[in-house]
Design brief:
The chain is an alpha/beta fold. The protein contains 11 helices and 11 strands. The chain folds into 3 domains: 3-78, Winged helix-like DNA-binding domain superfamily/Winged helix DNA-binding domain (Arc Repressor Mutant, subunit A), CATH 1.10.10; 83-172 and 277-313, D-Maltodextrin-Binding Protein, domain 2; 174-276, D-Maltodextrin-Binding Protein, domain 2, CATH 3.40.190.290. Helices cover 43% and strands 21% of the residues. The chain starts with a helix and ends in a 14-residue tail after the last helix.
């Protein structure tokens, strides 16, 4: 038998129990603690790991008298092992839901500024997908991408960054950065402002995530810097400082939906105009693993793209 055929046959023989043992030993760094956690004997656990190493044809752990540590090959394998366990757990939960309630589950992660529009889209498709339950959880885009790769989510809506290999991405909206100023502020008099006009103001924006990266970069390129006096991570905090006149804010348009227009002005920024691409993303394997999930993704995209307040920003091409 050819080596590739032998490898494929060995991979098919690997069990979830073996993968769970691998992940537990790696997390605890100790065979005794891992065996206790798994409710198995230490010799049985050691034998399971040896058998897994034989089937993978690689050494997964460096073993010493006092410590167990992953080899480089073992370290590279861990994200896939953890994703497999998470996916298996979700699949079992979904199987139970289908049996008990005759419904399937889709897990959707959404960045906070997009939750309102995504929730409305999910509510819109609820009547057309009565047999599907959509779970929604919010998080930063980098956290959502990690959750997508590890199987926590079936799909996410966030800002794409870094290595997107193995993912399908669909553009939802191009979300521009706006200037948020108090009514009556001198910068509120124009229909748009260049970034350079912010030079005499205390400037605030969310420090983390894609917003922080974009705003910090363009401020730096414009010879500006965020305020050393004021730091915010919440929408209401930013609005509070802006309304007081102590600072001007930079915020994506999605965050300004439903803002109190009688208290603040939203002014487009140019030179340069900065937009972040908000994407709906899922792993390419979802077509085989969760066809109902792919159908829900398409329905959500369609519902979003028919919203009057976002239509002008949509690009119907897949990235």
């Amino acid at each position: 038998m050819a080596r590739s055929d032998t490898t494929a046959a060995n991979l098919r023989m690997i069990s979830l129990r073996q993968i769970r043992c691998l992940v537990t030993v790696a997390r605890t760094g100790n065979f005794s603690r891992a065996a206790e956690e798994l409710s198995v004997s230490q010799p049985a656990l050691s034998a399971t790991i040896r058998q897994l190493e034989q089937r993978l044809d690689m050494t997964l752990f460096h073993r010493t008298t006092h410590k167990v540590a992953l080899t480089e090959q073992g370290r590279l394998l861990m994200p896939h092992a953890e994703r497999l366990l998470t996916t298996a757990h979700n699949a079992l939960v979904d199987m139970h839901a289908v049996i008990v309630r005759e419904r399937t589950t889709v897990r959707l992660g959404v960045m906070p500024s997009a939750v309102a529009m995504v929730a409305q889209a999910v509510a819109t498709i609820r009547e057309t997908c009565p047999d599907t339950i959509v779970h929604i959880a919010d998080g930063r885009s980098d956290e959502l991408l990690e959750g997508l790769r590890t199987g926590v989510y079936d799909m996410i809506v966030g800002v794409a960054s870094g290595n997107l290999e193995g993912l399908e991405t669909h553009l939802v909206v191009e979300d521009e950065l706006l200037l948020v100023v108090a009514k009556g502020h001198p910068l509120a008099d124009e229909t748009e402002q260049p970034w350079s006009a912010l030079g005499r103001s205390e400037i605030i924006h969310f420090a983390g995530g894609s917003i922080g990266e974009l705003a910090t970069a363009v401020l730096h390129d414009s010879g500006l810097a965020p305020s050393p006096r004021y730091r915010v991570d919440q929408v209401e905090s930013l609005y509070g400082l802006v309304r007081s006149g102590l600072a001007v804010g930079i915020m994506p348009r999605l965050y300004t939906q439903g803002s109190r227009s009688n208290e603040v002005s939203l002014v487009p920024l140019f030179r340069p105009a900065i937009k972040r691409k908000v994407m709906l993303m899922y792993r390419s394997q979802l077509h085989e693993e969760h066809r109902s999930g792919v159908a829900v993704a398409r329905d959500i995209l369609e519902a979003l793209r028919t919203r009057d307040d976002l239509t002008d920003s949509f690009d119907h091409k897949d990235e």
